[in-house]
């Protein structure tokens, strides 16, 4: 039975106290530096490089923030002037004091209004800057994810990919505010406030400033311990979200095996664990926030108390005390912003590491420096002693040596796990051979630009994947330049036009996520139509007709003859009607070719292929005569 959230939380607390959360790494290590701190510094440098194109906007925001800070520092002086020079100045007559009060008060209001308008404009420009950085990061991250090796994507799972593209990107963008703008402006405002306080009354200033350095250092050290907590929280959220995605992708399986309660339990345990960790972090932050609240109240009391004493002793005016109260707020506010920025920075840093560790990963099969465009016509594909292994020492394709002439149809047959799909994956360059080469027209396919090489391909798999969109959009996915007429022609060739025409909106009908509004056979025919529309030079059919009934398959076979003409085709299929028309049949066992030839040649040899055909005929007696021909 899976662990409860309490057990997971206790293990988390134990790791936190032992400092083991800081050691957790799950991404690529930068080459220049080792360890979590080295990675973090490297990622911060990468982030600063990302900000370089936005330096003009960043400078504008910074200047606006400085202007707002300067104006706000003037505001308490107006109050001090009104109290000391107007309200408490008994030597002037009342009309004169009223006139001065209205004049200075009007200027005061104008300064406050200008300050708030500039601050609103600064916030808007800040938002535009954040959006620009966010879109830039999101575009780069999505591009990198689309080009990562498949094993990397499998390790991250759907939940991890989505959490990085959404929450992590948004939180990382907060670095701009928390690590650059807010601390820099706060430091400048702090310095200005200290200078003004010292000029007004150095005794009150020293009293207000005495307690701040120690509390600030303590707060910074305290807040730093929060980062590993949020990193752990993000990891848990990724796992929970990934499980939710899997549950709803396989909802039929969940219901068929009555696992609704188990999935709900797994979700609640995961979310409850996240909640416990967040509260664990919140309790630590609460101590910090409470301490600052007490500090603000304490300093306010001290200023009134000690300021009153200085006033009675003739060393401070009432205006000084009131201005000091305002300046103390302006003093503590930037100090709190610095500390709070550091606390919030921990969340941003934890998210940043998850984003930039992906950006630091090497893309899948980068083009060689001298890579060239792939040829438009396929004359020959030659497998030169190809071997491939997913795990070192465990090859799934061994010494695969065969020459496939352009325009011919090659059928790969054999038991499950024989390596048939892996061979077609090698043709599609989802993987590269561990040993040997695959040559296209005499050139290693790794010498071609990957994108131009894959322009030659179309694939129809047994597990059909359709997108949530219209029928037309799904058929056109293989070639966006296809016209409506070409799309309809592809559907007719795939025997899909008839059922499409019966849909409520025909080719404009929405088929739902993964094509859930269609039957399995309809989905398969739509996938075949997509391959037809792509007009490929190399076609891979991996059990492409497995979900079709016999009548539909027979109708498609005739149109397939037209599609396959002049195209090099690799077919993985067990249905004899597909296999027997192939120009070459390769029987594979344990990754090796054990028999090769046409259907008639292999039947005459009376070997393994002959026995396989006989077993299939026993279960499909009505095909016997046709197969033997």
Characterization of this structure:
The protein has 629 residues and is of the alpha/beta class. It folds into 3 domains: 36-359, Up-down Bundle (ABC transporter transmembrane region fold); 380-456 and 536-628, 3-Layer(aba) Sandwich (Rossmann fold), CATH 3.40.50.300; 468-534, no CATH class. Helix content is 64%, strand content 10%. It is built from 22 helices and 10 strands. The chain has helices spanning 5-17, 35-51, 55-87, 94-146, 150-200, 202-209, 212-224, 227-249, 251-256, 260-312, 318-359, 420-427, 450-454, 471-476, 484-493, 497-501, 520-534, 550-564, 576-579, 599-605, 608-619, 624-628, and strands spanning 380-391, 394-405, 409-414, 435-440, 443-444, 457-460, 538-542, 568-572, 584-589, 592-597. The strands form 2 sheets. Strands 6-7-8-3-9-10 form a 6-stranded mixed β-sheet, sandwiched between helices. A hairpin with a 2-residue loop joins strand 1 (380-391) and strand 2. It is elongated.
Number of helices: 22
Seen as an oligomer or otherwise, the chain set is single chain
Q: Which strand-content bin applies to the residues?
A: 5-15%
Could you describe the largest sheet, including whether it forms a barrel? 6 strands, mixed
- The domain count comes to 3
Mean pLDDT score? 80
Summarize the structure.
Helix content is 64%, strand content 10%. The protein has 629 residues and is an alpha/beta fold. It folds into three domains: 36-359, ABC transporter transmembrane region fold, CATH 1.20.1560.10; 380-456 and 536-628, 3-Layer(aba) Sandwich (Rossmann fold), CATH 3.40.50.300; 468-534, no CATH class.
């Amino acid at each position: 039975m899976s662990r409860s959230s309490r057990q997971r939380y206790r293990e988390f607390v134990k790791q936190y106290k032992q400092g083991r959360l800081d050691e957790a790494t799950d991404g690529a290590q930068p080459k220049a530096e080792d360890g979590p701190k080295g990675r973090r510094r490297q990622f911060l440098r990468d982030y600063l490089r990302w900000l370089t194109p936005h330096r003009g906007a960043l400078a504008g925001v910074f200047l606006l923030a400085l202007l707002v800070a300067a104006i706000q520092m003037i505001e308490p002086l107006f109050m001090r002037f009104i109290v000391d020079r107007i309200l408490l100045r008994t030597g002037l007559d009342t009309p004169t004091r009223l006139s001065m009060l209205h004049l200075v008060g009007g200027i005061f209001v104008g300064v406050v209004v200008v300050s708030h308008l500039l601050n609103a404009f600064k916030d808007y420009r800040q938002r535009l800057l954040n959006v620009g950085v966010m879109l830039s990061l999101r575009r780069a991250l999505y591009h990198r994810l689309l080009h990562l090796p498949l094993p990397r994507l499998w390790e991250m799972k759907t939940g991890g990919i989505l959490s990085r593209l959404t929450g992590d990107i948004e939180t990382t963008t907060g670095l701009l505010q928390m690590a650059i703008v807010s601390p820099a402006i706060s430091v400048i405002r702090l310095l200005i406030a200290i200078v003004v306080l010292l000029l007004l009354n150095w005794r009150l200033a020293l009293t207000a400033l005495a307690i701040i350095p120690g509390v600030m250092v303590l707060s910074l050290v305290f807040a730093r311990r929060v980062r590993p907590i949020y990193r752990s929280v993000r990891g848990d959220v990724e796992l929970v979200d990934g499980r939710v995605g899997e549950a709803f992708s396989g909802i039929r399986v969940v219901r068929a095996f009555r696992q609704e309660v188990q999935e709900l339990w797994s979700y609640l345990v995961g979310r409850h664990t996240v909640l416990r960790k967040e509260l664990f972090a919140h309790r630590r932050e609460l101590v910090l926030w409470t301490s600052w609240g007490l500090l603000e109240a304490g300093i306010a009391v001290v200023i009134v108390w000690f300021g009153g004493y200085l006033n009675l002793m003739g060393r401070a005016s009432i205006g000084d005390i009131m201005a000091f109260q305002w300046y103390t707020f302006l003093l503590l506010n930037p100090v709190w912003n610095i500390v709070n920025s550091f606390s919030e920075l921990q969340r941003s840093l934890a998210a940043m590491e998850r984003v930039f560790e992906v950006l630091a990963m090497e893309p899948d099969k980068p083009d060689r420096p001298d890579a060239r465009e792939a040829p438009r016509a396929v004359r020959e594909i030659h497998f030169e002693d190809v071997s491939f292994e997913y795990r070192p020492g465990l090859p799934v394709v061994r010494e695969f040596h065969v020459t496939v002439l352009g325009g011919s149809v090659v059928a790969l047959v054999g038991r499950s796990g024989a390596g048939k799909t892996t061979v077609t994956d090698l043709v599609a360059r989802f993987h590269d051979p561990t040993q040997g080469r695959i040559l296209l027209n005499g050139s290693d396919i790794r010498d071609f630009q990957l994108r131009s090489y894959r322009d030659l391909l179309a694939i129809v798999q047994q597990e059909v994947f359709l997108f949530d969109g219209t029928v037309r959009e799904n058929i056109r996915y293989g070639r966006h330049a296809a016209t409506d007429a070409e799309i309809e022609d592809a559907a007719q060739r795939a025997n899909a036009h008839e059922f499409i025409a019966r849909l409520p909106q025909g080719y404009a009908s929405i088929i739902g996520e993964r094509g859930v509004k269609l039957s399995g056979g309809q989905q398969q025919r739509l996938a075949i139509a997509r391959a037809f529309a792509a007009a490929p030079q190399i076609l891979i059919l991996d059990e492409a007709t497995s979900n079709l009934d016999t009548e539909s398959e027979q109708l498609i076979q005739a149109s397939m003859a037209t599609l396959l003409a002049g195209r090099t085709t690799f077919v993985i299929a067990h249905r004899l009607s597909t296999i027997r028309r192939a120009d070459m049949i390769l029987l594979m066992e344990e990754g090796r070719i054990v028999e090769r030839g046409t259907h008639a040649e292999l039947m005459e040899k009376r070997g393994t292929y002959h026995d396989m055909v006989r077993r299939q005929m026993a279960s499909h007696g009505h095909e016997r005569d046709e197969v033997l021909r």
